Amino acid sequence: MTVFIDIGALEDIPRQGARVIRTAQGCVAVFRTMDDRVFALDDRCPHKGGPLSEGIVHGDRVTCPLHNWVFDMNSGTAQGADEGAVRTWPVRVEQGRILISAELVSRPRAA
Ligand code: FES
Question: GO molecular function terms here (predicted)?
């Protein structure tokens, strides 16, 4: 069973914006879409490490700020290619609070 931890209010992230949280697994970007869905992805583009949290959110996709790869935030896959994927994490919103998988916070990074 996945245990979730409260990381803050949904309102703290602007629509089409992101917030970076530091976790045991590295930096994770938590995105808020225009229609208030949230997604959590590693904040590191699999291409050359661009900060996805600084990318442009459009629908349920985010465009990397460095070389414009477009990622589907549901799956983390790069659009139109099997060139790469970014890891996604369980996240949800309950009563205006953002909850992420406790696994992210507690489990040490795999070597
Ligand atoms: S680093 Fe993200 S597209 Fe190049």
Answer: 2 iron, 2 sulfur cluster binding; metal ion binding; nitrite reductase [NAD(P)H] activity
Closest CA to 38 of 60, 7, 63: 60
Cα dihedral: 10, 14, 17, 19 (round 10): -50
- With a 6 Å cutoff on the Cβ, whether 64 touches ligand 1 is yes
The domain limits of the chain are: 4-106
Q: What is the pLDDT of residues 42-81, one digit of tens each?
A: 999 999 999 999 999 999 999 999 999 999 999 999 986 6
CATH superfamily of 4-106: Rieske [2Fe-2S] iron-sulphur domain (2.102.10.10)
Question: What pTM was computed for the model?
Answer: 0.90
